[in-house]
Amino acid sequence: MVKVRMNTADVAAETYVFKLMNSSGVSESGESEKVLLLMESGVRLHSTIYMRDKSNTPSGFTLKLRKHIRTLEKKEKKKKRKYQKKRGTHGQSLCTRHYHTTVTHLPR
User: Can you tell me where the transmembrane regions are (predicted)?
Assistant: First the structure.
């Protein structure tokens, strides 16, 4: 699992750029790892290497989106996720969490 920081900016009306960065700032190869996702509402979503010019002040929607993402991150940090993995005979695997249980049968 890789921890990622995200920054949101609006480029034009209904066009947003999400900048995803490795939280450590450096990838395994020693380079800075950034991904830019360009989203035009209802039209397209793709990665890009070109950073578009953004406005100096973010729109109201962008501010609400940033706030929503920030509160989601805080909720995720507060949750305690405990995993227990037990192996049975015949390749069965049981993975339990505090709120649900998943059972998978793995073929030999």
Answer: none
